[in-house]
Amino acid sequence: MKTFAQLGIPFPLFEAPISETSDYLGISQCEICEQREQHCFRLNNGDHVVVRCPQCQTENGLRANCPGTFACQSCASSLTLPGRSKREGVRICFSCLREGKGAIGKDTEFGAVWWENALLGHTHGVPGLKAAGFETVILDPEENWAGVRLSQEKLFELLRTPSFSTWQGEIWLFCCKSPMTYIGEWQSVSASLEEEESRKLFGQLTAEIEEFPNWDWESVSNPDGGVSLYAFQCKQCGHYRANYDMD
């Protein structure tokens, strides 16, 4: 199973096989820079195309799946999305994505992260958020809604990373005040491991999952089991974490 690094287009936060993302479109023409024969990704619902206003030079995050015109957030000049099929999203090549000309929105354990959240330097938040070791910011006192404050650099790095495919929707995890690196669904992660090493890693991944069902590693490894375990590693401290869902 090939990875993006093996294709020569590495992502620091995504080391899983390419088959584990639905964002990748293969070789196509980028609708941002119009270059042909590029590794392309789809910007769609929850994603943004970053367009610089020709009048005032302000960068604007435009919703990738919304046709029509947008008003510049600074000078109100009219802006439009590149490409033809706006309702189906916008194709963006690896280079344009990594240069910040697009943003792939993420759902995380600390709330959603969209382009505007990265600008503000905090996640969108969730009610009653508990985030030990992270600085929190109260976003709505009446609803007890809070997010986590992170650097723009780290949040934009997350948005320049493909999402991973799940049954119920991705939840990106954090460690050391940074997004963790997604290393793959359990079956792909454990495929090259010996049994003893596999059991040890499984224990590390599931140790922090609250109310984790009483399944052993063999059950989760069963492709017909209807349970998926999504594994992450912190590249700063080496710590492993995971979350899971079911079909």
TrEMBL record:
Any Pfam family hit: UPF0167
**What family is it from?**
Belongs to the UPF0167 family.
Stated name of the protein: Uncharacterized protein
Question: Which organism is this protein's natural source?
Answer: Blastopirellula marina
> Could you read off the lineage of the organism from its UniProt record?
Bacteria, Pseudomonadati, Planctomycetota, Planctomycetia, Pirellulales
